[in-house]
Amino acid sequence: MSYSRPIDFKNGRVDLSHGSGGRAMAQLIRELFVRHFDNDYLRAQNDGACFPLPAGAGRMVMATDSHVVSPLFFPGGDIGCLSVHGTVNDVAMTGGQPLYLAAGFILEEGFPLADLQRIVISMAAAAKEAGVPIVTGDTKVVEQGKGDGVFITTTGVGVVAPGIELAPQRIRPGDKLLVSGYLGDHGVAIMSLRENLSFETAIESDTAALHGLVAAMLDAVPGIRSLRDPTRGGLAAVLNEFAEAAGCGMLIHEKAIPVRGAVAAACELLGLDPLYVANEGKLVAVCPAEDAERLLAVMRAHPQGRDAAIIGEAIVDANGFVQMETVFGGRRMVDWLSGEQLPRIC
Amino acid sequence: MSYSRPIDFKNGRVDLSHGSGGRAMAQLIRELFVRHFDNDYLRAQNDGACFPLPAGAGRMVMATDSHVVSPLFFPGGDIGCLSVHGTVNDVAMTGGQPLYLAAGFILEEGFPLADLQRIVISMAAAAKEAGVPIVTGDTKVVEQGKGDGVFITTTGVGVVAPGIELAPQRIRPGDKLLVSGYLGDHGVAIMSLRENLSFETAIESDTAALHGLVAAMLDAVPGIRSLRDPTRGGLAAVLNEFAEAAGCGMLIHEKAIPVRGAVAAACELLGLDPLYVANEGKLVAVCPAEDAERLLAVMRAHPQGRDAAIIGEAIVDANGFVQMETVFGGRRMVDWLSGEQLPRIC
Amino acid sequence: MKYIDEFRNGNVARGLAAAIAAEVQPGRSYRLMEFCGGHTHAISRYGLLDLLPPAVQMIHGPGCPVCVLPIGRIDSAIDLAREQGVILCTYADTLRVPASGGLSLLRAKAQGADVRMVYSCDDALRIAQDNPAREVVFFAIGFETTTPMTAAIIKQAAALDLKNFSVFCNHVLTPAAMVHIMESEGDPAAVALDGFVGPAHVSTVIGSGPYEGFAQHYKKPVVISGFEPLDVLQSVLMLVRQINEGRALVENQFTRAVTREGNRKAQALVAEVFELREMFDWRGLGEVPLSALKIKEAFVAFDAETRYSIAYRQVPDAKACECAAILRGHKHPRDCKVFGTACTPDQPIGACMVSSEGACAAHYTYGRHKEASASEVKA
Amino acid sequence: MKYIDEFRNGNVARGLAAAIAAEVQPGRSYRLMEFCGGHTHAISRYGLLDLLPPAVQMIHGPGCPVCVLPIGRIDSAIDLAREQGVILCTYADTLRVPASGGLSLLRAKAQGADVRMVYSCDDALRIAQDNPAREVVFFAIGFETTTPMTAAIIKQAAALDLKNFSVFCNHVLTPAAMVHIMESEGDPAAVALDGFVGPAHVSTVIGSGPYEGFAQHYKKPVVISGFEPLDVLQSVLMLVRQINEGRALVENQFTRAVTREGNRKAQALVAEVFELREMFDWRGLGEVPLSALKIKEAFVAFDAETRYSIAYRQVPDAKACECAAILRGHKHPRDCKVFGTACTPDQPIGACMVSSEGACAAHYTYGRHKEASASEVKA
Amino acid sequence: MCLAIPARVIELFGDDRARIELSGVQKEISLSLVEDVAVGDYVIVHVGFAIGKLDPEEAALTLATFAAMYATHGDELPLTPPLA
Amino acid sequence: MCLAIPARVIELFGDDRARIELSGVQKEISLSLVEDVAVGDYVIVHVGFAIGKLDPEEAALTLATFAAMYATHGDELPLTPPLA
Ligand code: SF4
Ligand code: SF4
Ligand SMILES: [Mg+2]
Ligand SMILES: [Mg+2]
Ligand SMILES: [Mg+2]
Ligand SMILES: [Mg+2]
Ligand SMILES: [Mg+2]
Ligand SMILES: [Mg+2]
Ligand SMILES: [Mg+2]
Ligand SMILES: [Mg+2]
Ligand SMILES: [Mg+2]
Ligand SMILES: [Mg+2]
Q1: Residue limits of the PurM-like C-terminal domain (chains A, B) (predicted)?
Q2: In a domain, A320, yes or no
């Protein structure tokens, strides 16, 4: 592999040769991915990464997420760190300690290499901060008009300590519902950049890895029933998933739900409901009522859970409806999102 | 989740709501993915899948591949079974026994649900045949013109038996190179369908899972140095990867390389070289010279290795060049692919 | 949020609710139609029905311009995008409205039609300027609130002499629809409504004046009401009082944003660009005379109906659909056989299920739990 | 593959090689230029140099229409796609040819230009018919082999009266280039070449006749040779014999596909549509008179150069590049300072590195191992 | 229907454009449908246009009525159990 | 340059089109540049057009020359070691 000019990361663009299995692809992998992700597994240049498991692990966990966010760069993050956090969090939500990541890139012909480099560096930093190396990967290039800059699919594996057994099916009426902080920041930060909506706000995406918080929570309350990160579909989707899996209802209290003023204001402007807006660094936890205050205290003591709150409880309801007690004391349903979250004028 | 009409898989199309995190997405996951992939891990509806590991496993392996093939359906397969085989094979190439798969779907708005269903059923069948369940997944929908029907990123985990330690760095001059069968079938089958090339041939993609073959090979010759599946970039890419990693040269013998007549003919028509054409159900193996005949016999006894052949050997060469002894007895280099494999007129 | 949060105070709400409960007369029922989806939304989202005494019944009116858009008009919009190949710009609200053949603008888009969501009609104009080689049509919908800006961009397009821009006008009028509801039974006395919660932002534009004739003629009290939950509660109280006292006046609860005259500048603009249509078909209501606007001859160059010879083809509402009865207060969504089964917000059949502010959609999304007989136990 | 495999028999090759070795005269050197990239390819791919005695030296000529396409012409093609917004149809071979500013058609495509790879020029015509609202230009390149089909589609476009189709003609001529090589030193006697392996498929079209004047005038033997490796070896043998015997004739090794007259029907078609250009710029060779074709006045409607007023702008070849010397047989690729470092097939600088059939690319891709001093040990 | 919200004008541009602010969210809107708007005014914003001004005195009066109502009836009818 | 290969014509269509076959690969090509092609003929195919016919007798003659050459010199010069 001598005899090749370094890649022009300043002005270059992805072209089809970067995905063809030839020299250009090998060079891109070496000069970009291996260089920044920087670990022995990748350097071994095998088709997959082999690794030992820590002694005493109970079960393993695997989770995957494809990331297709637009715009690619947004206040508080970019698709790179998001793709690390998104999957690390899915592993964490099973109670697992994430250990390794795989990353599959689908690049669109013409994508600026400078942007790709920026994204890879951001991924590398997020992986490093999370302590979860990216140990194997794949790169494909699609023709212009058949992709959207870059899509990143990350997959994580981790270990679940013996005795930890999170599942929404374990939720029982009476269990308490907690969220780890303010809702809707990510979705609003993204929407603020959409060309036809453009508004300005200081709100930043909350994208963050939550496995540290989860570890602290499980340490304090091993009996947590279930955890989930309210990404697409927001809190509403998670609560409906919980209700459906558990076969009981959910009741939340509007005034207990942490939503920033600017998020509420943006939602007013666009006709959206913060309960349906996506988050990338928040979790929803369910635990037995008697553990709720202790869990809340542990969460609040952690930087990722500073603004945690108890927002409601599971209730008996054969229909599996999610209800919300409004600030008025009335009750309404919080249904699954219908269709898409689109800005409304009426 | 009562109260919803079944999905119209006959005439329906993917729309943005199928990726929005709302009811339509939950329904698609339930009625399509969970139904066909059909296992308890998926039914558990967690963010990730938790699973035990078989006792006595040495190390674990993780591999990932994004699949962006066009056309989606081709003689001998489709993107669905391909996405299972592609990753199962990457796990197998490390010497691992694949255990579980994760699948991330990126769907383009407007994609016919009938095609998606056909792909999912094909994936499910391939996973079942390979004995590797798809235990977790993710679905995203991108706007029309920002994807290409469907992209599937699969990630596999598996276990590597103690003592198995495959790595191209272990290749030594004198080691023998073997391939498991005819080269170029997949690439030619795909190209035969490209609108502007259209030619007819009975050649079918060789897409297949190779972990069974690998298990038999490792059983007979645990000292195999390295395995790799010659996908994009073909045999040439694998040999150059081997040479680069091992710091030695490779010498192959043109007349020993199995290429079907129709594949050679299609390559003549298009100005391509079969050494650079992609395969999806073939592997390249390197083993000590003294094990080569035994390994060949074992491969030929397996249905996936019926047409296996010894094609050359590693040689001393500080430059890490891959050379081929031509049918004439002359020698030439087999370099990395430059740019893309494009049909040439001159 | 100033001027918003104060009007969402739960404690005050309980005070207002108590006042209503205190003033409701025993044995009397108060059937009040909130005309607007904005009110329906506030009632559903804040659970206001739980605060009202049983004697007060809220009937959801047809005040959602998306719900009432007839199938034939959506079909024409889809045709523009698919057959004429135009860039069709639309507010997101219309994207999922069901049209003929299982289509919607969103599905047409998924099949390749160039349908673009805009937040403001300004954006449609900009898209036309950015794509001089393409024809761009703005699919204009809305009540009086949303009409002036359409007028503004038509004038702007005329000033810019844009050749590739036109408007497919579907603006409709509130008072005409209210009249139609009173006339729909043949005999206004047969209409079982005791009063109207009148439009908020529509009235900001047209003023409260236009309802005075209505209130007087049909002897039904009208209270122009803001869309915040306390506004709605206060308006209900004001209606209860009028009913108790036998009055039938137009009262204005939304004084902070509505005057008797409304926004004269906006009205002048609308009058310059638009004129009354003789007849317009409303989904759920059928043909309503003088209930919509069309583009005046002077701006015909920007009228997509003329430019593309759009012929309106009436498509009958689904047979099973009870919208017509629901919109008149005769039936409740739960009375419709297909509610929640064949007809859901994801796959709506009738007008009331189309937008989240339709009566059926609001009940499905926010109020369905009331139908469930499950006994709840709070932990 | 009948008529292919028989001409790739390694045993026979050794027989031919032995014959060549037997006939080479001691102390004499045979410097033979294979004009075509097709021969270069066969020599490299089959490792023929290993079979030839050291006295026989093969010089790679300029016979690759992709390599010799000058930067300015690629620039114009890119302009058509980027500035004029046409659909530019091209054979895949041209996609990676470097143009000015670090561009190539592939990179222009990556930046959004509508560049489409076709396998046959027929497809370009079909694309024009399928996209009546777009202008479609076929970027025609090639020697005499590839010219008749371009003529055919121009005539077809005329018959169909296609308004949105034109051809950017860059067809070049073989004999003129051979003459130029002989003339380039000022004195033909200074050109250190002893004979020419003549074009295969070019000759199928134009016949072997056109080389007779060349052979006679410059007293250099020419053997028209097939592109299979045995063809090349036999042609070398035939050249060695001519040189040994002091003859300078056109001989035809490729009798199975070449006659003296060539393909009259194809020639007539070319003559009907094209005429000679006074001057054409070749990458690596510079301006060569009467070496290319242009579209005749009768078909000017389909001439992209006229339609888009394409003005050719000469862009000098890179300074470091030794192509000019290599193409004349004065230097070997290894003599170029940037060979394999700044200039590689992935990022070519000069003409000879552009296509896999250029002298430098062939040496890089197939023959570089010869430069390496590594001692090999076969296991 | 007719989603519209009151927001404060914080900056006037030429050409009938203005910047409004709502709890930390800012947006550019059109003032072409309204007259005599000054920085500090609250306008009702619909699809990127101001459709009218908000009258602060009237708002205060309405709120005062609410307060009175609450004072009179606030404790009479706690319809739901107190919140957690 | 000028990649072209001999292939057998296996079917003639109207409109100067034909199907050719090469070791199990078939393709439709144009015959518009050649004359008098019959099924069974070999044509030289370039970018989807036949540019000429292959003369089987001449091919046989060339191969015969090769054979003669091999008979004479075949064993003289094994340039490389025998293959594995
Ligand atoms: S549920 Fe659907 S069909 Fe029934 S009345 Fe409502 S909108 Fe019409
Ligand atoms: S190596 Fe490149 S720069 Fe040097 S002579 Fe060859 S083509 Fe020209
Ligand atoms: Mg996931
Ligand atoms: Mg996730
Ligand atoms: Mg998740
Ligand atoms: Mg891969
Ligand atoms: Mg794009
Ligand atoms: Mg892989
Ligand atoms: Mg693979
Ligand atoms: Mg592989
Ligand atoms: Mg996911
Ligand atoms: Mg597409």
Answers
A1: 172-323
A2: yes
Write down the domain spans for chain D: 1-318, 323-378
What would the pLDDT profile of C103-128 be if each residue is shown by its tens digit?
999 999 988 899 999 999 999 999 99
| Contact (CB, 8 A) for D169 and D294 | yes
Q: Are residues A50 and A124 in the same domain?
A: yes
> Are residues A26 and A126 located together in one domain of the fold?
yes
CB D182 within 8 A of CB D175: no
pLDDT in tens, F8-46: 999 999 899 999 999 999 999 999 999 999 999 999 999
The secondary structure of residue A208, as a DSSP letter, is -
Look-up of token digits 């046989």: F60
In this predicted model, which residue has the larger pLDDT, A259 or F2?
Answer: A259
Same-domain status, A317 and A221: yes
Q: Flag whether B9 is in a domain.
A: no
Question: pLDDT band at C191, cuts 50/70/90?
Answer: confident
CA distance B222 to B212: 15
Side-chain half-sphere CA neighbours of D364 within 13 A: 30
Q: Candidates D360, D364, D365: which one to mutate for ligand 2, based on the most atoms within 8 Å of Cβ? A: D360
Q: At residue A259, does pLDDT exceed 90?
A: yes
**Which of B113, B144, B160 is a domain's end point?**
B160
Task: Please give the structure tokens belonging to residue A160.
Answer: 């679940």
D154-D155-D157-D160 Cα dihedral, nearest 10 degrees:
180
Per-residue confidence (pLDDT) for residue A340, from 0 to 100: 78
- Residues A122 and A64 both lie in one domain: yes
Q: In a 3-state reduction of DSSP, which class is residue C194?
A: coil
**Fold classification of D1-318 (topology level):** Rossmann fold (3.40.50)
Quick one: A101 and A208 in the same domain? no
Chain C residues in contact with E10 by the CB 8 A cut-off are: none
Domain count along chain A: 2
Q: Which of A137, A160, A183 is the endpoint of a domain?
A: A160
Name residues with Cβ closer than 5 Å to ligand 3, which is an ion: A 63, 65, 90; B 138
What CATH number is attached to the domain comprising A223? Answer: 3.90.650.10
Query: Over chain C, what is the mean pLDDT?
Result: 92
B175 and B207 fall within a common domain: yes
Pair of tokens at residue B297: 């016999």
Q: What are the tens digits of pLDDT across the range D68-97?
A: 999 999 999 999 999 999 999 999 989 988
Residue A270 belongs to domain spanning: 168-333
Statement: residue A1 has pLDDT above 50: no
Residues near A268 by Cβ (< 8 Å), separated by ≥ 6? C1, C4, E5, E22
Residue F64 touches partner D, C-beta closer than 8 Å: no
Q: What pLDDT is attached to residue F76?
A: 55
Q: Which helix (H) or strand (E) holds C357?
A: none
A186 CB neighbours in chain B (<8 A) are none
Do A186 and A273 sit in the same domain of this protein? yes
| Nearest residue, CB atoms, B109 vs list C102, C110, C341 | C110
Q: A137 C-alpha vs ligand 6 centroid, how far in Å?
A: 7
Query: How close does chain B come to C346, measured CA to CA in Å?
Result: 7
User: B90 in a domain, yes or no?
Assistant: yes
Q: Which of B306, B313, B310 is nearest to B293 (CA)?
A: B310
Which letter, b or e, does each residue of C234-259 get, where b requires 16 or more Cβ atoms within 10 Å of its Cβ? bbbbbbbbbbeeeebbbbbbbbbbbb
Instruction: Give the pLDDT score at F75.
Output: 59
Contact A233 B25 (CB under 8 A): yes
- Asked whether residue B36 is assigned to any structural domain, the reply reads yes
> Which protein residues are within 6 Å of ligand 2, measured from CB?
D 318, 320-323, 326, 333, 336, 338-339, 343, 349-350, 352-353, 360
Q: Kindly give the distance from the C-alpha atom of residue A145 to the centroid of ligand 7, in angstroms, as a whole number.
A: 5
Which CATH number belongs to the domain containing residue A26 in this structure? Answer: 3.30.1330.10
Predicted confidence band of residue F81 (pLDDT cuts 50, 70, 90): very low
- Is residue A152 located within the same domain as residue A185? no
Of the pLDDT bands very low, low, confident and very high (cuts 50, 70, 90), residue A181 is very high
Nearest bound ligand to the CA of residue A111 = 7
Task: Return d(Cα E68, Cα C19) in angstroms, integer.
Answer: 11
